[in-house]
Amino acid sequence: MKAVKNWIEDPAPLLRAGAGYTLAGSDADATPGFAGTKTAGEAALAANATEVSLLQEKLFANSLFDDSRSILLVLQGMDSAGKGGIVKHVVGSVDPQGVTHASFKKPTPEELEHDFLWRIRKRLPVGGQIGVFDRSHYEDVLAGKVLNLATPDVIDERYRQINDFESELVAHGTTVLKVMLNISADEQKARLAERLDRPDKHWKFNPNDIDSRELWNQYQDAYQAVFDRTSTTTAPWYVVPANRKWYARLAVQRLLMDALRNLNQDWPAPAFGVEEQRARLALT
Amino acid sequence: MKAVKNWIEDPAPLLRAGAGYTLAGSDADATPGFAGTKTAGEAALAANATEVSLLQEKLFANSLFDDSRSILLVLQGMDSAGKGGIVKHVVGSVDPQGVTHASFKKPTPEELEHDFLWRIRKRLPVGGQIGVFDRSHYEDVLAGKVLNLATPDVIDERYRQINDFESELVAHGTTVLKVMLNISADEQKARLAERLDRPDKHWKFNPNDIDSRELWNQYQDAYQAVFDRTSTTTAPWYVVPANRKWYARLAVQRLLMDALRNLNQDWPAPAFGVEEQRARLALT
């Protein structure tokens, strides 16, 4: 078997939005921590999938016993940034039994009657699950801010509520992994044009995508505020350059794999006497 | 590319539990409709996955517009029959965005306070989704019957309620695909022994599995009653020989693929003017 070129450096510290991080200074074409080509990146993605799948099985197995942990992968980004591709090509490599997927669109009238975290809490992963949010509570401080759906005071309060909420999740055993897929405005233009050109992609296009694109700078500013206010030690943001889809997938896979590895789970010990059950089975 | 050996005959009519079907007369080692070896079966499974994935994407795309259909795949079988393997290896080939998985275990006290279909209704797939039930409402006429958890009259009434319930689902656009994975008693013994032998499989073993095994014949009879009473024209049962895991996976994939094909869905027509949106995009 040919050796697969893999990460030359842990990408997590390179992608984390820490103090002083600026989105404007980030290169959406970059491939931090990986020196190979697209072909090498795709080979690495396929090669790593086996470990991710095994780690997820341990997460699930342990949830049936004492150690009930979960992962919440929050995916954010401008339209066409590749959130769906992460779900399909990264999350898609693990057993569906262990995945809970939730997509958050414009809130319904019923959802608007409740606190903005109400609909989020209902879709959280239970123990043993990798929960994936395609958009999330962050829309309430992104679209919410840019479209003036709430007053600045309310938006300001929401950052605090989000931090409290995520701390609570972490305290209860959920690893909160927040990823912003960062594409450039030019790349988005090309991707939206492709969706308009291909009949099999029309369903992915919505005229609202262009409304949002017309507010590109305001959204970039709103994302910057999100990183400034909610990239905490317990739940940091990772900004993943996403102009190259293969890199974004490889990077999110690595972040997910490390989140699973950090749970340090082994196969659970049997809650029964193995010899006793062997003897029972032999009699049947 | 090497040609892949595939089905020589549509397996659906061969597997359907129609009038006069008997579980006792079924061979769990058989491979109806497929003449190849394990290697050929695994190659066919991989080759067909692309079409299943594409069909699922169309199902999902159409649900965003007018044609909101769904599939409910009900998986039943004795312990170790391979339900989990179907989820991982068949359902696992489609985009997690379009899959809703639910596993039904022994009812909780809250669930027992409600009608037996209450917990089932809560987990039904919405439009655009392939819902997968790992065990289901059928446990209430299987374990329910064998363990005398309900009177014969109540069990009898449940068959009727199930048929009404499934007719209702079908009338609302859900294809109900019911699969019983049929393993032999000897094969189960070998699989349970393996779970006891391997520390990475201990979590899949439960001493209750042997309790159920001791009631093997009663469960076979209860399955026969299920086929006799609930294998309807709108929602027939398929009994899939499952001693060979590769065959069971290939067969369920084929049933799922045909259920999707029968929806006859194309890509949805755009709900916007393509030229108009191209012009808007060009200005950004």
Describe this structure in words.
Two copies of one chain form a homodimer. The first copy, chain A, has helices at 12-15, 38-63, 83-89, 109-112, 118-121, 143-146, 152-171, 185-197, 207-214, 216-230, 245-261, 274-282; strands at residues 70-77, 99-103, 130-134, 174-182, 237-241. In chain A, α2 runs parallel beside α11. Chain A is of the alpha/beta class. Chains A and B meet through α3, β2, α8, α9 and α12 of A and α3, β2, α8, α9 and α12 of B.
Tell me the quaternary state: homodimer
Largest two-chain interface? A-B, 44 and 44 residues
Shape annotation of chain A: globular
Mind summarizing the main beta sheet of chain A? 5 strands, parallel
Mean pLDDT of chain A: 96
Number of strands of chain A: 5
**Unreliable runs of chain A:** none
Q: Count of DSSP helices of chain A?
A: 12
Radius of gyration of chain A (CA) equals 20 Å
**What class do helices, strands and sheet pairing of chain A give?**
alpha/beta
What's the helix-strand series of chain A?
Answer: HHEHEHHEHHEHHHEHH
- The CA-CA distance between the termini of chain A, in Å, is 44 Å
User: What's the helical proportion of residues of chain A?
Assistant: 40-55%
Main sheet: strand order of chain A: 2-3-1-4-5
Portion in strands of chain A: 5-15%
